[in-house]
Amino acid sequence: MSELASARTAQTGPVAHSSLSRSSSPFVDFDRASWARLGESIALPLTAAELAQIRSLGDEVDLDEVREVYLPLSRLLNLHVQEGGRLYRAYRTFLGDQPARTPFVIGIAGSVSVGKSTTARLLRTLLARWPHHPRVELITTDGFLYPNAQLEARGLMLRKGFPESYDRRALLRFVTEVKGGKDEVRAPVYSHLTYDIIPDRSVVVRRPDILLLEGLNVLQPATAGRDGRGSSLTVSDFIDFSVYVDAPPEEVRSWYISRFLRLRETAFRDPASYFRRYADLDQPSATRRAEQLWDEINGPNLRYNIAPTRSRASLVLTKGRDHAVTRIRLRKL
What's the pTM? Predict the structure, then answer.
């Protein structure tokens, strides 16, 4: 993720479709009120105190939004997981035998500062509290960024968060091993404080029922290498359901700058922080630096690499100016 990355008005009534008609669009659009009705029969398994621990800095999600947006989404995902289990049992009967079922992988994508980390943590908590208590784990792709030393050597420090700043081979190997049913799969760990990979530290994934994979570029298609061939596989090939968290770019830019200014008052003041040099900037200087980081790094990454993957998602959560979800677009089966 880039340098800054570390650093309610609910719509009612029908939501307009794109230029495709209702019958020809591959998506179904919901305004927030319509979507909320899909979860009305479900008790909210989350308290305000728990939500406070889950949401990221600057993300104003409240219990009403959890109830109206994320609870119906967790119900939908739970249905997908259950149907996957039925299909697995049918396969096992058809083939006569089959290895144990592999994890259901959910991808969470979107820009820096749009709230995808909060979305991922909320879904992890809600999914784990469904009656059958599935084992749910969350991995962020930050751990698959190249260490800073390698990024410096490759001239990529100012492109941190762009697709080429990740060890895509290691990330693909991690996901294929998870989907292959390996008993234990390790992922590197990233520190937002030091803005680098933590050496000799990893997190172990042990065959969960559901794995949430959150990151800027989890929906990237396969790309050709310099020889024109490239890989025929990419991480998104192994994702069973994907969520893209969306918002107008100008709003995301504003949220990014606001978060930078708040971090300047908090996390940046830690002596161990990579961003300690920003803590003593006055507000106008800090604002200019945040604007520069967005305009030169995060904005272009969103425009050219992240936003083009939105159409590949199974579901899109669209946020309005106050950071609240106003529209949900679901791909038809």
Answer: 0.90
